[in-house]
Amino acid sequence: MAKSSGTYTPMMAQFLALKSQHADVLLLYRMGDFYETFFEDAKIAARELELTLTSRDGGPDGQRIPMAGIPHHALDNYLPRLIARGYRVAICEQMEDPQKAKGLVRREVVRVVTPGTLLESGMLAEKHNNYLVAVTREGDGFGLAYCDASTGEFATTELPSVASVRLELERLGAVECLLPLDLRRIDWVPAPDRHLKPRSLGVLWQDALPESIQVTPRPPEDFKPESARKALMRQFQVGSLEGFGCSNMSLATAAAGAIVTYLQDTQRAQLPLFSGLRTYHESKTMVIDGLTRKHLELTATARDGSAKGSLVHLLDRTRTPMGARRLRQWLLAPLLDPEAIVARHDAIEELLNQPSLLRAFATALEPVRDIERLTGRVAASSINGRELLALGNSLAALPAIGAVAQRCQSPLLNQLAAPPELLAHLGTLIQDTLVEAPPISTTEGGLIREGVNEQVDALRTLQRDDKTWLLNFESDERARTGIKSLKVNHTKAFGYYIEVTHANRHLVPDNYHRKQTLVNCERFITPELKSREQDIVQSEERLFRLEHSLFDDLRHQAAEQIPSLQETGQQLAVIDVLLSLAEVARDRHYVRPSVGEDERLTVQGGRHAVVENHLPVGTFVPNDALLDTSNERMMILTGPNMAGKSTYMRQLALIIILAQMGSFVPADQAHIGIVDRIFTRIGAVDDLSTGQSTFMVEMNETANLLHHATTRSFVLLDEVGRGTSTLDGLSIAWAVAEHLANAVRARAIFATHYHELTGLSTTQPSVRSYRVLVEETQDDVIFLRRVVPGGADRSYGIEVARLAGLPPSVIQRARQVLGALEKNNRLFDSLKKTLVQEVPPQKQLPLFEMSR
User: Fold this and answer.
1) Which pTM does this prediction carry?
2) Which of 176, 73, 60, 34 is nearest to 117 (CA)?
3) Would you state the pLDDT for residue 303?
């Protein structure tokens, strides 16, 4: 906003000076009970928030300035709408009492609100973390750090490629990403990563990032390792970063330091207090990319994106929002360390073996609220009365939780066997000090219980006496003047006044002094009321200041315990998740799986966790599975549509994820050789935004898994090659299956309608053919949903079409055409015989030339 402030009014000059420091954000300028916007900001606010655009004097030569505002108490209603539309918002507050200010009230920007810096509970999804991420690069390596300002979580790592950066951002579900200005453009993309998205050289860096992330460019110097290291050491008040494990990780340090600098620039007085900086490595958890998460419906359904119907919805019986967030973290980052997995299994087994423990924990956790985010509000000095009482009630429950934890053997369950006494004492103090239903405002009284403070009680007595006096005064004035509708009211702007309608104006006594004229009435003051008003206002101000001071004392005592509060919140979240998983295991009859460093996958009586939940009890048909990397690496799965192939594939993936996140699994028995990554290539979809056909998308996804799968991976392929001509598709499917079996050697299920692929089991020792059983009658086909050895020789597509409701004439004609084709076309019989001959895979390349 390039305007000279010399000819503007002092207030407008102040606004312009502040705006010049925050030119790229909307500035909400506090004026009394409103946040006002001016100039272009006002036009944007009026449009986005559906406000009335007005104007006011203040410009040169009497120029009127566009203006739009919102009530200060409604900020939490309007701010999320601006943030959701991609705006960053600067909050400018009055830094002194307007009644005591000499001249213009001093104002400052106290905070810049962005998607990744939200703290207000009303603006955050309870069960989702709100991650701010920073990414930097040097050579072929990347540094990535993330934090949740609302909970104090802060972590950093180093990654080897663009693809791994994207995977981590997808896992985190980050909402804002900080990038150095000089990294917004890249001049290369590693060859294995080109499948991510078609791009030319010099493309914007953020094109490699998930579309849901808001990219915030930052000065490159914020990412310099040395300046970042100093920023981190100042933040944590340490002499080195060795205690955080990143002293020799310059890129990780650079990304983490950039986050700290950004928060210092934007949050100022409300800077989050982190419990520490955790250095982690991607090799410690299973990789689940966004496509796999979508195909398996881990956190949202593919149909409408709703959480209801997803795996996390089924598992989530947590009692606290922090528990729900931790459950989601476990689900999206299953462990690779068998010892850590077994520790979670041990805890769940103990809860199931001792139902009284499960019930006792559930009861003890009932009063607990979101300690993690409440602590974040304490750290930012923005917690209100209701939130502080919620924290107090949560802390007061710690002794009862500790008593239950003392009965447990599992380290994950008994970690709060001796909860911090200071926290329990703080909880009781908060409960004893605050009223049962505190107001949201902390500056207008009504916070402190009766009997807590003698001065508060005395001032409240005066307040009650004043109210009685006002009622008596109003009654006396009605009787003296004969004005039955006379009222004594009060506003912050005008103080106390006597209100008389215009119809009774002739009855107004001489000692009434007019204060304000309105459309329907007039307001008056008398010397007696004016004198009493001063006493009332003074006692009110004293009471409000005293209550706010007592509240601040409580808040400061809580702030002194922030590290302990953060640790306790994390421990309670873990217990909450374990209780949830135990209850699901109990009610859904899940079993404890065994896990190991081997590469064997054995499941007996496996079930799809979500599908069986939507069916009548006992109607889901369970199935077995056996995969390893020596004798039986790949299943070629054939059978008709609707027979259950997709469900079978997905249920095995879900069993692996459940087992490695530490949950029991829906099966009669299961052993999981640790899986490092799950790949899925399921379904047909195009990508019109990048001009990719269905088949191109299919090939991109197939290329991704062939490039990145290892012997420890689990691969699900469904109908590879169906997006092109029959000969092309069969050729590609055959070659992909051979490559998986011979070169990648991952555990894999390859579902297909190309029955010819069953011939691989005769040439590849590690490939086995399976089919989904179908029972044919004279007039119908019954899907038995049992997976058994052997290959199918029919797809029953016409029967599925009949079940879908195609007209009988179409079905009849389709059968006639199929009969003619089967009678006259012997191509695939001879093709299959050729393919299964003992010919080295590299000599089969002419197959790809057949379709040219």
Assistant:
1) 0.86
2) 176
3) 84
Q: Give, for 6, the enclosing helix (H) or strand (E).
A: none
Place of tokens 């299920």: 749
Phi and psi at residue 453, to the nearest 5°: -140, 125
Q: How far apart are CA 434 and CA 386, in angstroms?
A: 9
Residues 324-357: b if buried by 16+ CB within 10 A, e if exposed: bbbbbbbbbbbbbebeebbebbbbbbbbbeeeeb
Amino acid at 149: A
Strands 176-180 and 214-218: parallel
415-425 as b/e: b if 16+ CB within 10 A: bbeebbeebbe
- CA Rg, the chain, in Å? 34
Phi, psi values for residue 241, rounded to 5°: -100, 10
Per the DSSP assignment, residues forming a β-bridge with 781 are 776
Count Cβ atoms within 10 A of the Cβ of residue 776 and give its class: 0-12 exposed, 13-18 middle, 19 or more buried: exposed
Q: Which alpha helices (H) appear in 709-791, and where do they start and end?
A: 726-739, 760-763
Left (φ > 0), alpha (ψ -120 to 50) or beta: where does 161 sit? Answer: beta
User: Tokens at residue 433, please?
Assistant: 């000090």
Question: Could you tell me whether strands 487-491 and 278-279 are parallel, antiparallel, or unpaired per DSSP bridges?
Answer: unpaired
C-alpha to C-alpha distance for 92 and 334, rounded to whole angstroms:
44
Beta bridge partners of residue 156, listed in sequence order:
145, 279
**Cβ(789)–Cβ(770) below 8 Å:** yes
CA-to-CA distance for 118 and 89, rounded, in angstroms?
11
**Contact assessment for residue 255 and residue 307, using Cβ atoms and an 8 Å cutoff:** no
Q: Could you give the residue ranges of the DSSP H alpha helices within 22-132?
A: 39-49, 75-84
C-alpha atoms less than 13 angstroms from C-alpha of 743 in its C-beta half-sphere: 13
SS3 295: helix
* pLDDT for res 5: 47
Q: In whole angstroms, give the CA distance from residue 502 to residue 517.
A: 9
Q: Which of 77, 65, 82, 72 is nearest to 15 (CA)?
A: 65
DSSP assignment letter at 793:
S
Residue 767: strand pairing partners = 634
- How many Å from the N-terminal Cα to the C-terminal Cα in the chain? 62
Distance, CA of 679 to CA of 700 (rounded, Å): 13
Beta bridge partners, 90, equal: 27, 112
Strand partners, 775: 782
| Among candidate residues 174, 208, 266, 214, the one with its CA nearest the CA of residue 84 | 214
Query: pLDDT under 70 in the chain at which residues?
Result: 1-6, 182-209, 683-693, 723, 725, 777-781, 793-796, 800, 821-852
Q: For tokens 């005008």, what's the residue?
A: 494
* Nearest to 400, CA basis, from 566, 555, 575: 575
Residue with tokens 């409440």: 374
The DSSP call for residue 51 is P
Does residue 838 sit in helix, strand or coil? Answer: coil
pLDDT digits (tens, 9 = 90+) for 457-498: 999 999 999 999 999 999 999 999 999 999 999 987 788 999
Helix (H) or strand (E) holding 681: strand 678-681
Structure tokens at 492: 């912050």
Grouping H, G, I as helix, E, B as strand and the rest as coil, residue 465 is helix
The answer to whether 379 and 560 have CB atoms below 8 angstroms apart is no
Tokens describing residue 766 = 């590690």
With a CB cutoff of 8 Å and minimum separation 6, the contacts of 659 are 334, 341, 593, 595, 665, 670, 672
The strands making up 64-71's β-sheet, listed across from edge to edge, are 54-57, 64-71, 34-38, 26-31, 89-94, 107-113
Q: Kindly list the distances between the CA atom of residue 831 and the CA atoms of 643, 759, 828, in Å, as whole numbers in the listed order.
A: 27, 10, 5
Nearest Cα neighbor of 724 from 699, 706, 703 is 699
How many CB atoms are closer than 10 A to CB 807? Answer: 9
Look at the alpha carbons of 604, 609, 611, 613 in this order and tell me if their dihedral is positive or negative: positive
Determine the length of the chain: 852
**Considering only CA atoms, which of 701, 794, 697, 803 is closest in space to residue 753?**
794
